Amino acid sequence: MSAMTARLVQAAIDAAKTAYAPYSNFHVGAALLLDNGEIVTGSNFENASYGMTLCAETVAIAKANSDGQLRAIREIAVAGGLAGHVGTGADPITPCGRCRQIIKEVADLTQSDIPVHCAYATGYATYRLSELLPHGFGPASLK
Hints:
By secondary structure, the chain is α+β, with helices and mostly antiparallel strands. 30% of the residues lie in helices and 25% in strands.
């Protein structure tokens, strides 16, 4: 486990503590590692109209974008679980399908197969986006 990846995963766990999840009580945090070593975080933000809920990964990516750092994203960490138990599950929490698609947009923009570190009780599992979203729909699909 590299020190930087451990720091990124911990940032995702910490971000989950700020989640607004009164309906599901399932808190998710995401942390992005930028090319300059900076970490950008996000947490899920639920809405009574469930379809309007914002996932942690989407919040973090939108935040990086609004700071002009979309092209600087190099790695992503995700942690989730019931309030007070984030990152303690037996299995890694992976991004939902919608978030995988949002990450695909970043991967295509940066021309990289972004590593996604997914927290669980004994550490984290790392997947490349291509493993999480094989045959993903991206800008090239529009041609």
